[in-house]
Write a structure and sequence with these properties.
The protein has five helices and no strands. The protein is mainly alpha-helical. Helix 3 packs antiparallel against helix 5. The protein starts with a helix and ends with a helix.
């Protein structure tokens, strides 16, 4: 959901972004907790860690989702305002 919205140029502060967040998280999600977790785990070093772990384990390297997570975090921040 996030990837297609981001790729389509949907601004994180737009009503369309709010719809994406609502569909993704549902009405009962603790959005502040989701934002905190995104901010804590979105460091480039964390993504590099998971990529290296996949290589060491002989598994396919997962595609980067950092742009999607950054968009979602910004959409959550914008929804606070």
């Amino acid at each position: 959901m996030v990837g297609p919205a981001r790729e389509a140029g949907v601004a994180p502060g737009s009503p369309q972004a709010a719809e994406v967040v609502d569909r993704l998280l549902g009405p009962s999600a603790d959005r502040e907790a989701v934002l905190e977790r995104l901010e804590a785990s979105s460091a480039p070093a964390m993504e590099r860690y998971w990529r290296l772990l996949a290589i060491v384990a002989g598994k396919p390297v997962p595609p980067s989702r950092s742009a999607d997570f950054a968009w979602l975090a910004e959409a959550l921040r914008q929804a606070r305002r």
